[in-house]
Amino acid sequence: MKNMKKTHPYHHGNLRVELLQVAQKILLEKGVEKVTIREIAREIGVSHAAPQRHFRNRQDLLDSLAVQGFSQLEKVLKAGSLDSEIPLLERLNNAALSFAHFAADNAALFELMNSSKCCDDKLGVMKEASESAFCPILELIISGQEQKIIQPGNPLKIGLVLYATLLGITTMVNGELIERDRLDDFVLDSMDHFLKGYRY
To answer: Which residue from 103, 127, 169, 172 could staple onto 110, CB 3.0 to 4.6 Å apart?
Structure first.
């Protein structure tokens, strides 16, 4: 009995934050199939009923994890693209590298974020989070068009082409079809081809 974890009451201070932190840790270390409300509650030391105050069910938890992932990605992309002292195309390259490293470093989370079939997004929360995450790159594309560096056209369409390119590369890295230490070279080569196609 001495080794049994004590459970905390459901109003535990930052329970929702802790639940998501532990869920992401389990996701990255063991895979999505191991992410259960029961296991996460056990890890934190709360009753199995406590998480239900924050997540209706396991799918709600997974969807919240994906939304949190997009929020993390947005911060990473902003950090990689904010320095206005750097030429715009270099900032775009930096943002692309930041995107690729996030996807490779958080493979299971990134897969969950891009798995729309397992997402019930009735309120559009996931859509809003994903669009917000990609805004830093979209803003660079728009700035490039305004500066006549990137061809005119629908920036969303151009951004989607770029997203698909980076998604393909990181999927191949995460699937071990491309060695991880070649990630930067593949991203920069792809960006070179992308920018040649869309240069003004």
So the answer is: 103
Provide the whole-model pTM: 0.85
Residue 194 to residues 33, 127, 133, Cα–Cα distance (Å) = 36, 25, 20
Q: Tell me the C-alpha distance between 171 and 175, whole Å.
A: 6
Nearest 5°: phi and psi at 4? Answer: -70, 135
CA gap 71, 136 in Å, rounded: 12
Residue-wise pLDDT for 78-92, tens only, equals 988 877 788 999 999
Query: pLDDT tens digits, residue range 176-199?
Result: 999 999 999 999 999 999 989 888
> Can you name the residues that pair with 91 across neighbouring β-strands?
none
Q: Residues near 106 by Cβ (< 8 Å), separated by ≥ 6?
A: 28, 69, 72
Q: To 10 degrees, the CA torsion angle through 86, 87, 92, 97? A: -50
Cα–Cα distance measured from residue 32 to residue 74, given in angstroms and rounded to the nearest whole number: 22
DSSP readout, 90-156? HHHHHHHHHHHHHHHHTHHHHHHHT-GGG---TTSHHHHHHHHHHHHHHHHHHHHHHTTSB-SS-HH
